[in-house]
């Protein structure tokens, strides 16, 4: 199993779109993929037609057992998405109540790791979608992940947010043994605007090696897809956004590290 987290402490940068598209493309290649919604807003959950206000079985269930993960619980929270090979562990809005909980208490930071350890033989890839706020949920995602994808909108304010994210990452990694490899992915790139072009250049200059070599373009198909609850498909060759995500996926597969040992099982 390979576990990727998609995170940035800024909203609206394309995190959820990245999770759905990478997940869909992997599933289309015959992989068994689980996407996990760790955002109390539940955009990923809504994408697949579930209502995070009323959903019964969600990630929230994992956090109600004093840091333990009862055998069989994670599997019971997984639902099908209608897209073959792609499964979802939904978020409920109740997750928002966790943000004030202490990470250190009762092994609260390792719950997602432990839950995924139970699903080790069931999925080839797990992609974790994240909330912008740094709390127990994001700490869980960063502890569980083997690779971090940081989407960054190609505009100046978003680059400030990136610095905050990288600082957070360093802070969290200091308390763990292994550094978490990451890839910064420029998103919502519009080659016709100065702001996009200039900020992409700035990103290249500042983050060279950690920056993905291309950018995800603005493509209205993504907004349509999320509203229609459709998973973007590689077969949709008209969609230049999906073509870009296909390159990204290939690069992540080529560059992402040998998986770390199964941990926290
Ligand atoms: P986040 O999860 O970071 O908040 P989303 O993936 O929900 O970001 O994207 C925010 C908005 O931008 C959504 O309306 C989404 O449909 C749209 N969007 C995301 N990526 C693109 C893109 N490459 N081109 C056009 N619109 C996009
Ligand atoms: Mg989102």
Task: Explain what you see.
By secondary structure, the chain is α/β, with parallel strands linked by helices. It has a single domain (2-255), classed as Rossmann fold (3-Layer(aba) Sandwich), CATH 3.40.50. Helices cover 37% and strands 14% of the residues. It has nine helices and seven strands; from the N terminus they run βαβααββαβαβαβααα. A seven-stranded mixed beta sheet has the order 3-4-2-5-1-6-7, with helices on both faces. β6, α6 (156-174) and β7 (182-187) form a beta-alpha-beta unit. α1 packs across α9. The radius of gyration is 17 Å and the shape is globular. The two termini are 13 Å apart. The relative contact order is 0.20. Residues 260-265 have low confidence and may be disordered. It binds adenosine-5'-diphosphate and magnesium ion (MG). Adenosine-5'-diphosphate is lined by residues 11-17, 43, 187-188, 216, 218-220, 222-223, 226, 241.
